[in-house]
Amino acid sequence: MSIKPINVGLLGIGTVGGGTFTVLQRNAEEITRRAGRPIRITMVADRNLDLARKITEGSCRVTDDAFAVVSDPDVDIVVELIGGYGVAKELVMKAIANGKHVVTANKALLATHGNEIFEAAQEQGVMVAFEAAIAGGIPIVKAVREGLTANRIEWVAGIINGTTNFILSEMRDKGLAFDVVLKEAQRLGYAEADPTFDIEGVDAAHKITLLSSLAFGIPVQFDKAHIEGISKLDAIDIQYAEQLGYRIKLLGISKRTEEGVELRVHPTLIPSKRLIANVEGAMNAVLVHGDAVGPTLYYGKGAGAEPTASAVIADLVDVTRMHTADPENRVPHLAFQPNAMSDLKILPMDEVQTSYYLRLRVQDKPGVLADITRILADELISIGAVIQKEPGEGEAQADLIMLTHQTREKRINAAITKIEAHRALRQV
């Protein structure tokens, strides 16, 4: 057996790139024993040459030209940690065209251009591995793609964005407003200076899009995902949910139904006794339900230098082991053979069936509750629980909280429109 090292070109030596370099060096002996040959970073590209030189300490070539790395004949695997969809896409496609395997943490790129990237890789007989793109260090891609192969997967639901989970945990713990906690999250480095992708649910949607493909063998369809973030949540909603026995979490959900696949991200009420309801701070957790195995839960750090590096290096080891294998015998990128992908449609949100939480600000006078109940009944919506708050001293309005039983989104939207037109209401 040849023990020629496998050569890795690293694009980006920021947080995750630096972590990957450090862990690969620290655990070199262990990793070699697992992989069957040494894995070494021979070339690093980063715009910040000083930082790259400081981290690598002269152990490999350093350049500020990422294209030099993807075109270098000595590089076997390219690790893309630049992020975004612009130059990262060009680099990944170029690496594939040059017959190099790719390991990436770039969920945004794969969620939007995955079909094209995986197809190109298939044609070139190379692998694109992306464990680090979903839930940081948690090996969720491998679990769904390989560990649960025997199952017909029914649904996946996950807390897959640490920033929003940290914000919701703090709002619940301290009763603080969203804006206040967001500033704190930015100060602590949990949230970016521009936190839009996180707080509006886009990052979670990228990840659940990829998980839905792995679970159901459908093409990547990010443009069909329903995306709702947490910026409109009030601290009072978290308190009311608590009184009803629930916690609010931002979940990515993908579910197989007879009519098609649900693909959605939104704040969700989870019974507070459930394990996933108790995932706090910046931690991630993913629940996968298979017909044979039942529900399985994966929990751990969803971000950070070394947790994400753990996933990058696991992919490097996988690719190293399979490097010489006949491409036909490798694990397919999206779990199912490329010629056996399903055309199950993604359901529009209007057609999704679930239960709803409503908070209404109503005038405190007789008959209002009856009127609202009637509007809901007209739309065939039944009520599961109600909290009616006494108005404060000198106030003419009170909060009315309702949980509905299962209904379709379009029915609840129709009911909300009618309720908003009701004269006794101030806001929904």
Protein architecture, described:
- Helix content is 38%, strand content 24%.
- By secondary structure, it is an alpha/beta fold.
- It folds into 3 domains: 6-138 and 305-340, Rossmann fold, CATH 3.40.50; 140-301 and 345-349, Dihydrodipicolinate Reductase, domain 2 (2-Layer Sandwich), CATH 3.30.360.10; 355-427, Alpha-Beta Plaits.
- The protein has a 6-stranded parallel β-sheet with strand order 3-2-1-4-5-6, sandwiched between helices. A 6-stranded mixed β-sheet has the order 8-10-9-7-11-12. Strands 15-16-14-18 form a 4-stranded antiparallel β-sheet, covered by helices on one side.
- Helix 1 packs across helix 13, helix 5 runs parallel beside helix 6 and helix 8 packs across helix 9 (178-187).
- The radius of gyration is 24 Å and the shape is elongated.
- It starts with 5 loop residues before the first strand and ends with a strand.
- The relative contact order is 0.12.
Topology:
Layout: E1 6-11, H1 15-26, H2 28-35, E2 39-45, H3 49-56, E3 61-63, H4 66-70, E4 77-80, H5 87-97, E5 101-104, H6 107-124, E6 128-129, H7 140-147, E7 153-159, H8 162-174, H9 178-187, H10 196-199, H11 202-216, E8 226-227, H12 235-243, E9 246-257, E10 260-271, E11 283-290, E12 294-301, H13 305-322, E13 353-354, E14 357-363, H14 368-378, E15 383-388, E16 397-404, E17 407-408, H15 409-420, E18 425-427
Parallel strand pairs: 1-2, 1-4, 2-3, 4-5, 5-6, 8-10
Antiparallel strand pairs: 7-9, 7-11, 9-10, 11-12, 13-17, 14-16, 14-18, 15-16
Helix pairs in contact: 1-13, 5-6, 6-11, 8-9, 14-15
